[in-house]
Amino acid sequence: MLVEGITSRPVHGGIQVDLFARRHFFALEGEGALALLAQAPALDEAFFDRCEVLYAAADAAGRGYDEALARLKPDLFRQTPTVETLLFRLRGCLSRATMGTRLYVAGGEGFIGRCMNVAAGFGMDAGTVLTEHRGSAARRVQCVHCKGITEDVSESPFACSHCGLNLLVRDHYSKRLGAFQGVCIDAEEPVSASRTPEEVFQ
Amino acid sequence: MAIMFRQETFRDDFTYRNSPANIHRFPFPFDRDEYAYSVNIEPHVPGRKGTIYESLIDVDEHYVAEMADRALVLKEDPLRYQALPHMMQAQWDVLELLMEQQAAGYPEHFSLTRNGDRWRWINRPLGIDDTFTFGARETLPYEPLEYIGRQTQGDLCIVDQRDNNLWMDAGLVTTQADWSLDFDVGMNFMEWHGPVPLAHGMGIFDRALKFLLNLQLGQPVRRFNWTMTVNPRLDTSPENYHKWGRDRTTVTPVNVGRKVHLRVELQTLWRLPRSNAMLFVIRCYLMSMEELVTVPKWARRFHRVLKTLPQELVDYKGMTRYRDTTVEWLSRHDDGAPTSPGIWPD
Amino acid sequence: MSATSTIPVRVSEIEPVAESIKRVRLERPDGRPLPPFSPGAHVVVSMNDGGRIRRNPYSLMSEPDDRGYYAISVLRAEKSRGGSAFIHDVLKAGDELTISHPVNLFPADKRGRKHILIAGGIGITPFIAMMAGFARDNVPFELHYAMRSRAHGAYWRDLVASYGAHRIKPYFSAEYQVLPVATLLENQPLGTHVYVCGPDRLTDCVLDAARNTGWPAANVHTERFLAPAGGKPFDVELIRSGITVHVGEHESILEAVEAAGIDAPCLCRGGACGQCETSVIACDGQLLHHDVYLSDDEKAGGRKIMICVSRFEGTRLSLDL
User: Fold this and answer.
1) pTM of the entire structure?
2) Is the terminal CB of chain B with fewer CB neighbours within 10 Å at N or C?
């Protein structure tokens, strides 16, 4: 595909807390911890009494964000070893949540996409989940040809981890899949010419 | 008068052709000699006899072959049909609308008999005679949208209306100009139009959305879109782009007239009564350059339009590799004479 | 796009169903089926009241799948602008009217996992078709219905009989019963939607309670009765038509324009749909915006007016009509 520079990137408005909510769930990954920590000084004990924080340190492990989050004394704080286990816990939280619950998600694009997916499964409208992008700009990409999802894509083009086609990452994002679209880049070239991948999502 | 349905293919040996009569009813979309982007929405009302507007859902000589091609696409990739669970009521709306319109427009080919919610549908060209219960999914071999979509020319998309936006929540899409329903399902109007260049900045989608949100029952509207396709291939999906993309490199000054096709989409939009959702029918018409230049007015005008098309749109429509070759070939059929107003042949 | 295409209908039945409320049954004179409609939809009924055309929107409350007839319910408005008084005092079985195609500005969110309907008085009407739809699709719902008294409230006995007391909760203010809005909204599961239709007081109360219990705005749905408030009469200069029309105390600019034989685009007649947006060419005075369509900035800007509900106070108003 010869088109580049499409402008339909997801817009993350930031996780400014909604003080009207009765319950606050935070799903945070890596540097995403900073999105909550930055607001913490303005929030009081009563707020954190109504707070549940799930945190996967991912590539921010060892930076002490986990301890900083624990010091906020939320009603529940759980650090999970991986994003998968965080998503499992998130399902547990949402299954007993009520309409007064607000979900805040901060971390990488792929992480945000996967959390939104879980929330949608509980009838939460995408527009009601607050999101903030922090840390790596690596993307979660679905190959439009084989439908396989490749995590942590930081170069374009890249080879699909499922079918091996060379994919251009389009700036076209599906909230339902939580992924950008990858489309074969060299289909129009008679002999598969090699292209140098560029680091574009850093 | 009964339509003579052609036997032809849209893949492999590409035997698709338009009969001379069908060329004259082609929806040539340009009403002036230079390219101008516009929302171009107008009421979808029945038009002149012998045009594609004679019936609100047009059936032509390619019907049987198109339905065979659609069945092949669905067999290879069932994901071309998508429907989110809350769209079932809208699916029945669509089935009713398309059966009613086709039976009204072509009684010699289709008939619908209703006895309460027991309906009998006869589709003679495809040899179908089914009796089913309206509203009961288990009385049809497919979900209602897929069932009627396998018997209707054109892609079908059903959009839900909520929160002042339109949501692409169901569809059957096998003849698309390079967009993926499987990827776009669940998106809102602005999101699924995200990849279209230029128009966002002009506010075109904001205005179009505001208009469509007010679309009324019994007052469908239509608009045109167009692109070009190498070979008369209906399934130019992104899913299979790695297979057909190479076609774009095969155009030469010798074969351009036969290979390059103008691809026109007639989009009709209908408010659906029971669900308050909206149906988009995106009907694709293909005509080779050789067929197009048999109408001198269209030869002149299309040459001029293609020459003035902005580069962003040339890229977006995927015509970058063969636009110049096509303009060059068309220039031989443009004597510079003025063209008459309107879209129809002189 | 101009006025919606209309459907001729005949009144096949008109009967009182509660204090000051009449139910009107409409059928096509030629016996053909009416279009199916979606729950929450309304039609605009046009009435010829002694040579004067009155048009009022009414929610459809018949079975959405029954194409044989439409039913509406009409409350005699205390300060009637004419339409409801005409229906109560003049209209009789056999009379002919025209109606618009159904329009839905108050649809249920079909993805909802549970629906809570809150009605006040005549605000029950859109919910009757909605509940039929939820029951057909097997979707959980409950109705909380506030009325002045057992005699003033319409349909509540039938609804309890159809859907059960566990789903239909009536509240009578004459018996000091209060609809507990806040506690109702407090513990609802994710995916619940709430709908309110009734007097502004009730709507505001539900909106406040929803915000205070942390509901996202996307799950809260309102339909207000936006009957033109009426007000002081004034003149409007229509620049393109080259005439000046007088807008009386109990009519809207739109009605005055139509009475002068000018076909102005319009649809909902309730300040919601945006079709009658009109450019203000000159304004020496104050625009009184009563619509929910224009943004606050557009209202403050003073260059646009929704002529179906909004009014004017001052010395001179010129519109692009």
Assistant:
1) 0.88
2) N
